[in-house]
Design goal:
Elements lengths: L16 E7 L5 E7 L2 E7 L2 E8 L4 H11 L9 E7 L4 E6 L5 H6 L13 H6 L11 E2 H12 L4 H5 L3 E7 L2 E8 L2 H15 L6 E5 L5 H10 L3 E4 L5 H10 L2 E7 L2 E6 L4 E2 L18 H4 L1
Parallel strand pairs: 3-6, 7-14, 10-11, 11-12
Antiparallel strand pairs: 1-2, 3-4, 5-6, 8-9, 8-10, 12-13
């Protein structure tokens, strides 16, 4: 199924997981596949911005998306080069003109979740005057996407301890990114869109993580009108989604979901009674505990 994606999960990449021996609850030897973590230091021109812990795939997309979503890289800015040094584990994003990153770095704070520090004030400023497109969202697309994504072979299903984010159009998932931090996975999507010059007005973002304020802000700054997840909401995430007109859908499990804002985009074209419940071995842990 992953072959239908423009970019699918990297389940065959040996650098992303490692086999570790241990014992199980009976004291018997047990071999488990676990996720690798690697530091990645991101520079904007000559300024070191942050070191993020990541699984190490698509570092150029992660760097581009991080800088764009943190408000450090203006949409009108011309990126002249993205250089990755695998040995040093460094990505340098170079721009045509000098940026305003110095002041933005000074205002860096740490926000909710399991990712890196966030220039939260600048992210909020990026939402001022933002208008998201009034794109339709069919409930039949939701059900198809959830089933396709949750049955796709992934690092999560292989090793757990990882989040996934998927860029979708209608009922087709396009790009599936995974990482130890859900924010990293979103930033990889943003970086891919920026690099490939892909429009956001008709896209849907699906995430396995919680629908927090930062997830909502990142999605809105990317210009995507719909954000969906199997997991739950935070109150601030819902409040910001209402302010920017984002359709926020959570607790997607089988035939059930909850939409807390932006319901005017929904077109109810699917009968929930015809939607099968999730098979137990494909249920993501995030639906229960994340």
């Amino acid at each position: 199924m992953a072959a239908d994606y423009i970019i699918g999960p990297n389940t065959e990449n040996p650098r992303l997981t490692r086999s570790v021996m241990g014992v199980d609850h009976l004291g018997e030897k047990f071999e488990l596949s676990v996720i690798e973590e690697r530091p990645l230091t991101i520079f904007l021109n000559s300024q070191e911005i942050v070191t993020a812990m990541t699984i190490g795939d698509y570092p150029e997309y992660l760097a581009l998306g991080f800088l764009r979503n943190q408000g450090m890289l203006d949409p009108a800015e011309t990126v002249t080069d993205v250089e990755y040094d695998e040995e040093l584990e460094v990505v340098v994003v170079r721009t045509e003109s000098r940026t305003t990153y110095e002041e933005k770095v000074k205002k860096k704070t740490r926000t909710s979740g399991c990712a890196v520090g966030t220039v939260f004030g600048d992210m909020m400023e990026g939402l001022v005057g933002l208008t998201l497109p009034a794109a339709p969202m069919r409930t039949s697309w939701l059900y198809t996407l959830a089933r396709t994504i949750n049955t796709t072979p992934s690092l999560y299903l292989e090793a757990g301890a990882i989040h996934g984010t998927v860029l979708c159009k209608e009922d087709r998932p396009l790009v599936y990114m995974e990482d130890v931090g859900r924010h990293n996975a979103v930033d990889k999507i943003a970086g891919w869109m920026l690099f490939e010059k892909v429009g956001a007005e008709d896209k849907i973002l699906y995430t396995t993580g919680r629908l927090t304020s930062e997830m909502v802000i990142k999605t809105a700054m990317m210009g995507i009108p719909v954000l969906a997840s199997r997991s739950g909401f935070t109150a601030w995430g819902v409040e910001i989604a209402r302010q920017v007109g984002l359709t926020l859908i959570g607790r997607m499990r089988g035939k059930r979901f909850v939409c807390l804002t932006g319901e005017e985009r929904l077109i109810w074209d699917a009968d929930p009674e015809t939607v099968p419940e999730d098979e137990k071995h494909h249920r993501r842990k995030g639906a229960l505990i994340d």
